Amino acid sequence: METLFSYRPGDLLLFSPRVYWQLVAGNNDAFWPLPLLAPLMALVLLWALYRQAPAFIRTSLALTAVAWAFVCLSFLWLEYRTINPWVTWTIAPFLFQGGALLLTAARPPQPPAQPHRKGLSLMLVAWGGLIHPLGVLVDQRNWAAADTWLLYPEPLAVATLGLVLGLTRGWRCALLLPIPMVWCVIGGATLLGLESPFGWGVLLAPLVAITALLPLTR
Amino acid sequence: MDHQWSIHRRRLLQMLAAGTALSALPLPLSLAQGRQPLALERTIPSSGEAVPSVGLGTWITFNVGDNQRLLDSCADVMAAFFDGGGAMIDSSPMYGSSQNTVGYGLDRLNARDEVFSADKIWTRDGDEGRPQSRESADLWRIEGFDLLQVHNLVSWQAHMKTLRAMKEEGTVRYIGITTSHGRRHDEMERIMRSEPIDFIQLTYNPVDREAEDRLLPLAREKGIGVIVNRPFRRGALTESLAGDPLPEWAGEVDASSWAQLILKFILSNPAVTCAIPATTRVDHVRENLAAATGPLPDHDFRERISDTIRSLY
Ligand SMILES: NC(=O)c1ccc[n+]([C@@H]2O[C@H](COP(=O)([O-])OP(=O)(O)OC[C@H]3O[C@@H](n4cnc5c(N)ncnc54)[C@H](OP(=O)(O)O)[C@@H]3O)[C@@H](O)[C@H]2O)c1
């Protein structure tokens, strides 16, 4: 049984970091200059969360809805699935999440008022939208393989958690949180398997989200 | 089936040769084709056919999707492999796009006659074995496989029936079962005792030696070929030894790297038919094939290799 302990996180993946980041670099190239626009769009999300003006709320929810559909079809279906057949099972939940966000954008609820919740949502959106792509600085890859929230599922899931927590409540919030939370676990573990320490940020995002839901302040 | 025999002309001649004095000659056809013969060929116990003792795995390394540059670099690895006299390539439906990558390489190199194709059945559904093997052959762009194995013993009872029938029909030449990481050795032993299999595949290297207890001796006793997976613990062994200087005594068995010393350890077990290291690098594939030449360690030397590597790992 000694051999069983020779498992490493990367053994659970079907592909190597080299291949995954080349896929990302190729996808970035195909959709240039979207990778450059993504951090700017993240600022729109942060502004919407901060000001909570109805027009910004609607725009940011709609933008995020489109991002879920776009990431699903452009990256997951066309690219990632070629090296990871299991991805096929994620297509329906991603499209569902996009649809649910779009419906919420059509009639957004009154945002929740707890200050700690607002603070943590801003943190999650800033993490997914601005900080996560800086993973290129610590991994063995270059800027061409930066994973930004408009193109890749992990930063998108983290940013979505922040947006949903900061802008929705009640059943809408309950409907919109589970899929990004589950993806944070899957995607975070995958990034760790790819030896990217930023996987920890993705993996811990659901815990931050749960903390934001706790009734810590009135 | 006829196609099987036309595709594997080289193998067929080797099988015929195995029954005659010609069998003493190393790889007559590769000589005829002007390629480098491997000194260390092994005989498949159930047929007497010769097969080079270092093969090529494809788990992770060949799962490169549609990336043209990476597909070509895998084909380059395959070209170096065949040029160096290698033959056995191992893949599985579980390995993402690896089967397609092998197919791309075989196509580009026009190397269908040179490969000893080893693939697997990997599905819980007992009725899916045959269709899955056809899909796999399509991805490899070949008519059928030399060897089909039940991957990780998944639904092995049902698949074994299918494989036996396929072997009788001639749609596959050899059948077997696989495991890795030291898992399910008891079950493997039971199958080896009860089923007419040609090959087992398992993990074996200087630090993972459970197979020596029962499975390797049993394979010899029953005339079952042994394919060794994870020779380098998926690279963990070679990576961790990379910082340590190779002992001088490695030269006594003509090993010039840790990878070669590990492969020499594996190949020196008489039960082993073929080790199948995976690689993305042309220099590594050459280095691995070179381990199949020159002298092999004896018992004391093997223990020395194992002790040294265990102490450094
Ligand atoms: N249950 C099963 O049926 C089962 C389970 C596991 C494996 N397998 C089969 O066995 C094959 C081999 O096992 P594996 O791929 O898990 O691991 P492995 O062959 O032990 O290790 C592969 C790693 O070793 C490195 N490597 C190869 N040659 C080297 C050299 N000369 N010097 C230094 N590093 C070297 C490669 O890196 P580079 O790319 O840098 O060379 C690669 O990352 C698999 O590909 C698969 O076909 C079957």
TrEMBL record, chain A:
It comes from the Bacteria. The chain crosses the membrane at residues 30-49, 61-80, 86-107, 119-138, 150-167, 174-192, 198-216. This is Uncharacterized protein. It holds the Pfam family DUF6064. InterPro entries: DUF6064. Keywords: Membrane, Transmembrane, Transmembrane helix.
From TrEMBL, chain B:
SUPFAM superfamilies: NAD(P)-linked oxidoreductase (SSF51430). InterPro entries: AKR2_Oxidoreductase, NAD(P)_OxRdtase_dom_sf, NADP_OxRdtase_dom, TAT_signal. It holds the Pfam family Aldo_ket_red. This is Aldo/keto reductase. PROSITE patterns: TAT (PS51318). The lineage of its organism: Bacteria, Pseudomonadati, Pseudomonadota, Gammaproteobacteria, Pseudomonadales. Residues 54-302 form the NADP-dependent oxidoreductase domain. PANTHER family: D-THREO-ALDOSE 1-DEHYDROGENASE, NADP-DEPENDENT OXIDOREDUCTASE DOMAIN-CONTAINING PROTEIN.
